[in-house]
Design a protein that fits this description.
This protein is of the alpha/beta class and about 375 residues long. The protein contains 13 helices and eight strands. The structure holds ligand L6N33NVT and fe (ii) ion (2 copies). Its EC number is 4.98.1.1.
């Protein structure tokens, strides 16, 4: 088989406050995060949004010690996976490729080439597939493969999603049981799954399987947990004015407070490491919302990080993937049709020339409005809550 490598894909996060702005630029420059009808608008808009948003975002990172712990945790996961694979007799080097911050996917691929890896397993650290996460990283890899003949010497297989892996489900259930037992009456606790949201149009227009995989994942966890506790699934971290998957976490918490729920256990479901949205958004912002709504005991299940059962599950996924015949990126699910632009407006490709002219004009008007906002500090993005 030759030298084996595992490429763990993840989002990346700013390690210090100075990184926040360029990190946000990289994120908003990704057409899988904001899709615009004209690619030339992508970078100017990313520059604008990152310039206008970074201070608010920095304040959030300041509340969790001045940076994201994502790199440190992902490195610990990679090391634990390498060790576990060696224990079960599968020698492999594990690499980390982040989408928006160091170590970037490009850095991982350079190391994979340097190490003369012959067989690669591409394993995203997102249990559920979304166009905006794993899909975006796959697209970057596919482009690299197209451009670089040396990469085409590497046989690879892809694990597009693994929300139903028994080891992952078991590790989640272990953590939930541990936290439930800390409540004075575990049977009375309301279990609250909080998944990272995506715009509703990703599912409706582009055929993103994300929502369906999240729903199935929560069902599998509840089935394996095998308890009678009530549970809710809601979606957090909405950005911008468009409709995202519902119910929103904030609204669902208020609703449960109104119903008289006092004990609540939050389970972050779409990400396997602690990061800003667990440490700041859930632990600080949503806790406040819940307490104001009358929820007295608000607790959270920790992220899996290097939980041994979880690392074992990753090792198993790797071994299973190595048994498969080499694949291509074309075999990975992709959007059914072009997505609406973001902020989502009706957009169809193959329009008439007149419509294209009008869309171009509207884009220019929008761009000028953004410039005005940048100079004045007030404008449409503040109004709609994107900044
Ligand atoms: C499965 C997880 C994630 C999905 C789906 C996702 C989609 C998505 N995210 C944004 C916008 C932002 N995301 C930001 C940070 C961020 N996002 C995820 C995960 C998912 N995103 C993580 C783990 C992190 C944080 C990493 C860290 O630093 O710890 C941010 C920046 C933070 C902020 O300013 O709030 C933005 C912005 C969109 C628009 C989107 C779907 C289209
Ligand atoms: Fe995000
Ligand atoms: Fe987010």
């Amino acid at each position: 088989m030759g030298r084996v490598g595992v490429l763990l894909l993840n989002l990346g996060g700013p390690e210090q406050l100075e990184d926040v702005r360029p990190f946000l630029f990289n994120l908003f420059a990704d057409p899988e995060i904001i899709r615009l009808p004209f690619s030339w608008l992508q970078k100017p808009l990313a520059w604008l949004i990152s310039t206008l948003r970074f201070q608010k975002s920095q304040e959030n990172y300041m509340q969790i010690g001045g940076g994201s712990p994502l790199r440190r945790i992902t490195e610990a996961q990679a090391q634990a996976l390498e060790e576990r694979l060696a224990e079960i007799g599968q020698e492999a080097r594990v690499y980390i490729g982040m989408r928006y911050w160091h170590p970037f996917t490009e850095e991982a691929i350079a190391a994979i080439k340097r190490d003369r890896i012959k067989r690669l397993v591409i394993l995203p650290l997102y249990p559920q597939f979304s166009i905006s996460t794993s899909g975006s990283s796959f697209r970057v890899l596919e482009e690299m493969w197209k451009k670089d003949p040396a990469l085409r010497q590497i046989d690879y297989t892809i694990v597009p999603c693994w929300y139903d892996s028994p080891g992952y489900i078991k590790a989640m259930v272990d953590l939930i049981v541990q936290e439930l037992e800390k409540f004075s009456d575990p049977d009375r606790v309301h279990i609250f799954f909080s998944a990272h949201g995506v715009p509703q149009s990703y599912v409706d227009e582009a055929g993103d399987p994300y929502q369906q995989e999240i729903e199935e994942c929560t069902r599998l966890i509840m089935k394996t947990l095998n308890r009678s506790n009530d549970y809710t699934l809601a979606y957090q971290s909405r950005v911008g004015p468009v409709e995202w998957l519902k119910p929103y976490t904030e609204d669902a918490l208020k609703e449960l407070g109104k119903k008289g729920i006092e004990d609540l256990l939050v389970i972050p479901i779409s990400f396997v490491s602690e990061h800003i949205e667990t440490l700041q958004e859930i632990d600080i912002e949503y806790r406040e919302v819940a307490e104001e709504a009358g929820i007295k005991n608000f607790q959270r299940v920790p992220a899996l990080n290097t939980h041994p059962v979880f690392i074992d599950a990753l090792a198993e996924l790797t071994v299973e993937s190595l048994k498969k015949a080499p694949q291509t990126f074309a075999e990975v699910p992709r959007p059914k049709k072009n997505m609406k632009m973001y902020p989502q407006e009706r957009w169809e490709w193959g329009m008439t020339t007149a419509a294209e002219v009008w869309n171009g004009r509207l884009a220019m008007v929008g761009f000028i409005a953004l410039i005005i906002e940048l100079i004045s500090g007030h404008g449409p993005l503040h109004f709609v809550g994107l900044l």
